[in-house]
Amino acid sequence: MKKKFLNPPALGEADACFSHGVRAGNTIWVSAQSADDAENGTARSNDPEAQCRAIFERIQAVLEVGGARLCDVVMVRGFLRHREHIQATWKVRKDVFGEHRPASTSFIVSDLEAEGALMSFEVVAMLDEACSP
Amino acid sequence: MSKHFYDPPDVFSPVAIFSHAVRCGRTLTLAGQAPLNDDGTVVGPGEPEVQCRRVFADLKKTLDLAGATFERVVYVRAYVTDKGVLPVVRRVASGIFGGNRPAFTTIVIPSCRGAGVMVEIELVLDLGDDST
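^ Those are the sequences you sent over. The predicted structure of the assembly is below.
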């Protein structure tokens, strides 16, 4: 199977030579997403919970184009500007993933590219018969 | 499934505790590559473009040894010490990946391990069904 580039139009153009996600075989690699508005590249709010929700909506959109769902995610990496926002991300992730518990690493970073972004998240998903359509 | 380890002799290794690349099945995972001279000093201090080009040149040596090409890259993670370096990474990468469009994560960190290093890049490749 040839690899497939996953670029849902609603997310806006991925920059330069990159994609929002790639599916190769049964693995889907999703680029770190931040809550920036596709129109102007600015984060939509200064609320960590709202940004986190917006990010996982974007991730879900990329996964869908690749034929996967959130329950196919095996690894989550979070990049946060502020340590104190981690509880807000846990709350959102609990809502988003429910009982599904992927592996996870969190980083506190010194900056993020998108203006106003408080965090970004990337995921890796692997499809298996039990979960995927 | 056996693993294969790749360490190009002409790419600097700061410490012999890791490999530059490991292949398991169809997946080839590369270590973060920093722009370092043979003596471990940084290439092009203060010059992000020089550093980026060196990083991709060294990554290519590792890929060559593993018999792989940039066309098979599915994931790029760029660690930079200043987000101003990211447009340079994109520009250099655009000339290298061509029609391939990998996933891309950027991570801005306070400093890299090597003094003066402004960019470090790690790759994941999918070598396809025929590689297993």
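The two ends of chain B are 9 Å apart (CA to CA). The longest helix of chain B spans residues 48-66.

Shout if you want it in another format.
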